[in-house]
Specification:
With 208 residues, the chain is an alpha/beta fold. Helix content is 32%, strand content 22%. The chain has 6 helices and 9 strands; from the N terminus they run E-H-E-E-H-E-H-E-E-H-E-H-H-E-E. The strands form 2 sheets. Strands 3-2-1-4-6-5-7 form a 7-stranded mixed sheet, sandwiched between helices. Strands 8-9 form a two-stranded antiparallel ribbon. The N and C termini lie far apart (43 Å).
Length: 208
């Protein structure tokens, strides 16, 4: 079994630009990437590949293999899957609440494919036992799409429903979830820049 993490550091996470500068966003995504790699290693995943259109920020990466592919995300991942000879788990790089327990449960599925939905109909993780028989189609409501692709190709599907595994960090409000539920370097980085404040019964983010 192997894991692949799509990753792009340059000008990353533009939707966080109202609260973080470009330099801060790039530092933050690198911390999240390393946290995801550590989580996969803790779960016993032996081979971890980072699939990126650029080596920017990955020049000194030693914890995982760096694969350069300048193609569109779907094209790059589908090329990767076609060449895979063992089960593959695709994990997004912005999942700092993902734990090794989640990864183990996802990869122990009895189904052919296990899909982890993210907010707004996205796909945060995708475990595929027969990668050469599967194609991905990210963007839009990719969760529903990935379930349909499995069914259309005669492969059984499990949906892994988890608040933490389903929390990807895209919007400023997602940082609230990180500060409440998170741990590790990504949370530490954000906690030095923001604090939580109650407002009208809701928790909101406030610059320190």
């Amino acid at each position: 079994m192997k894991a692949v993490i799509p990753y792009k550091k340059a000008s990353a996470k533009s939707r966080l630009s109202p609260v973080l500068t470009r330099e801060e966003r790039e530092e933050f995504v690198e911390l999240m990437l390393n946290q995801v790699i550590d989580t996969l290693k803790e779960a016993g995943i032996g081979t971890i590949d980072i699939l990126s259109p650029s080596t920017y920020g990955l020049e000194n990466m030693t914890k995982a293999n760096v694969l350069l592919d300048k193609s569109d995300l779907n094209e790059a991942l589908n090329r990767y899957l076609k060449q895979a000879e063992e089960p593959v788990i695709i994990v997004m790089a912005d999942l700092p609440l993902l734990s090794s327990k989640h990864v183990k449960e996802i990869t122990l599925t009895k189904k052919d494919v296990c899909v982890v939905p993210g907010k707004g109909g996205g796909t945060n993780s995708l475990f595929i036992k027969n990668p050469s028989r599967y194609t991905v189609r990210y963007y839009g409501s990719s969760f529903l799409t990935h379930c349909s692709i499995a069914e259309e190709t005669g492969q059984s599907v499990e949906v892994y429903d988890s608040l933490f595994a389903g929390t990807d960090i895209d919007e400023p409000e997602d940082l609230v979830e990180l500060l409440i539920h998170g741990s590790g370097a990504a949370k530490e980085y954000i906690s030095k820049k923001f604090r939580l404040e109650m407002s009208r019964g809701r928790v909101r983010l406030v610059h320190i």
